[in-house]
Amino acid sequence: MERLSRGGTVCAVAVMAAALMFGIWVRDVSADPTTDYVIASDYVECMRDSLAPLGTRYQNFWNNGVTQTHGGHLTIGTGIWQLLPNSTTSFGICEGDDTEDNISTEPDKPTFFEYYNKANSYHPDSNKTFYVGGKTWRDTIACSVDPEFGRSVGGRVVIYPQDETAPADTATYRVLINTLSTYHPHLVLVNFKDVDRYGHWADPDDERGEPSDYYRAIVVADSLVWNLWKWLDAEWNTFYKGKTTLIVTTDHGRHDDDHGGFYHHGGICHGCRHLFLIAVGPDTPEETVVTRYAYQIDICPTVGELLGFYYPHARGSALSEMLEFEPSHQTGTNYGAGQDDVRITSTDSISVSPKIASSATGDTLHVVYADKSDGEFEIMYAYSTNSGSDWSSPAQISTDTAIDAQVPSICMIGQDVHTVWMESRLHKDGQADSVPRWYLCHSRTTDCGGHWSNVIPVASSKYERVPVREKPSWTIWDPSINYDGGNKMCAAALYGIERNKNRIVSFYSTNGGAHWDTSWVDTLAWVPQHLDLASESYQNDDWGFAAWCDLDTLATGLKGYAWYIKFNRSSNGGAYWFDLRDLHKDSTYVADPTVATDLPYVVVSWALWDGDNAKWQTYCGRSEDVGDHWEDEAVLSSDSTAIDPELIFASDNNFYDFWAEYDRSGTPVDAHIVYRYSTDGGEHWSSNQYRLSDGQSYSLRPHACKHKGVVWEDYRHGTWEIYFDSP
Ligand SMILES: [Ca+2]
Ligand SMILES: [Ca+2]
Ligand SMILES: [Ca+2]
Ligand SMILES: [Zn+2]
Ligand SMILES: [Zn+2]
Ligand SMILES: [Zn+2]
């Protein structure tokens, strides 16, 4: 079938909240246990017998991020793992003491609503994109805090019922049909909430429900999904029939029987992670079952292919099996190489998250990054022996059998290169089926990648255990490694869903990474992210400094309703961290802290979202006494919106702060790498702001090394590549 004219197709994504494991999939015992699932349950008779045969079913479909409602929905919308916990703010429910502002929990990258509206010059009032749901959400589902997008191109939000009435799905469905009939929107996300609600209530400790209510909710949601398709496909429905794709999926699963049973969810077990996806529409083959691994982040790219918009910030890949046309694979306009920046990668796929390190002496530079050229993300390595003018061909260092790899970090010890990253390996825990599980991995090379040591899984994610509310899972995220004398340090953020029960662990090794000891950087974290480390030997101590961000989406309790830039330090190479503190606390989004030292100076930089003016700015905080006392923070960026700060203390004895500055006025919207520097420990910064990158389109996420070499992810060719330059 020909692809329908661009922008002429219509797409509906129905999220049937968490009906997994008990109810939807039962493993076919006669089939390959790792890949083959059949729909066995009579509770989903409509989808099994009527809907799925009309289209394409992905049976190996996974949530590899947060298996909760907020994180799941935002991941569906943005195509990039959104590590946000459930939020009373996002659901519009304020509990207890409500004297503080609600905090921002929008996704950091654009949703499909925003991509579609912006590409077609629509606005919320154009009524082309809608969220319709029983989940009482504010605008967190409708728009992001991405500098280029946001509320002015967000989706409309229709909540019904507007209270906590249950059952609600039939009422939500009526409002959905009314919305479709009235406005003829082109892109709709609908959420049926009852299955999840009654799943939780079925807990024997909960008086409000029992398992039969849960099964009934599945039957109702199943029939509503089928009714929706019959309505969209009805002969009289000339606006939608033959032009509309329906995608049915779920935000997360529920615990399997080995991890507490179906009542709750939010962990990393098979039941929580394993989802389903059924797609039906004019561009989708019938009677097709796809067995390969596919992910929740693939939905936004698929919607982009159907509706004809680019989705540059998504990290998933379009579900090509359900598309009877050749996907564009998110390729945007190629604006050419630019003037004097050095291109490190040349792929037609996603190359992102670069990190760079330089030897203490000599001109050799080392870069690691995540690359999706072979269809799965791998960690790649390249080096330059002439200060970045020329680069080796990239070589893979992540384990080939791993099915995903993310966020590498790199440091030098002498001339040895040490890297850490997180990779997802298939693992069995208590049941016959494997589940993708995140590991923190380490490897090193003594000869510029001629030979890499065996990949050591330094730590693995921890499964939830019964009772799951007391023993929640932890998942590895955002590892970082650093060295400047003494012990080697490597820290990783571990997140789960239980408030104030998550941790940042510091792994330190005194024998080159063969053995690792652990200590805690923070034991009261919730969703710690974007950890950065700096270390330096000073007056006979091995100092280590860690900065990261965290949030608390509840009004009451230990921390309460805020985003944080958190900080801690160690004076013995990471063996003990003694000074956990808040460098900044705010009701608005803070992001991407970065730390650098020239002891006794310690400088931290971060980005702050100004919601009133829809603008990001970069800030700087500093200490003159090894982190004891902190001076007033200062804004470093100019009037333009600025994200992704990256701070270094360079070999010329200056601090440099790099970031990505947006120029939202032109076409394309341009984000370029700029910097300022300080010669006095961060007290004063150059009055000029210098521009480093010179491509058109997005140059984002700079990372710098002591020799002032800077790498970043760059979209100037219409596909993400790694670029390099130095001030
Ligand atoms: Ca109950
Ligand atoms: Ca692989
Ligand atoms: Ca340049
Ligand atoms: Zn949910
Ligand atoms: Zn739930
Ligand atoms: Zn679970």
From TrEMBL:
The keyword DNA-binding does not apply. Keywords: Membrane, Transmembrane, Transmembrane helix. The chain crosses the membrane at residues 7-26. The keyword Membrane applies. InterPro entries: Alkaline_phosphatase_core_sf, Sialidase_sf. This is Sulfatase N-terminal domain-containing protein.
